[in-house]
Amino acid sequence: MLHIVNKSPFDRPTLATVARVAQGGALLLIEDAVVAATQGVASPLAEIQKKMPVYVLGPDLEARGLNERVIEGVTVVDYNGFVQLVAEHRNCQSWL
Fold first, then answer.
1. Which domain does 26 fall in, by range?
2. Is the dihedral of CA 44, 18, 11, 92 positive or negative?
3. What is this structure's pTM?
């Protein structure tokens, strides 16, 4: 399953919920959720990385000026990479 999160960790506890209940697959951070993949932000991302690969949408990082602050172990993808992730996973879950 591809887990897609679009809300900032400062706005909602969505990532904590994903860390608690997700059992595998992959995580894609888009829109304001990309903040969670940057240095200096406390989030449950390290815990999630133990369970599944984590991806972040590059254009959303760039739009927020964060493309130079991505933490180690997070893979930056473009829109084609986003489509590839969707195609690779049987199910997608968008977390609100």
1. 2-95
2. positive
3. 0.95
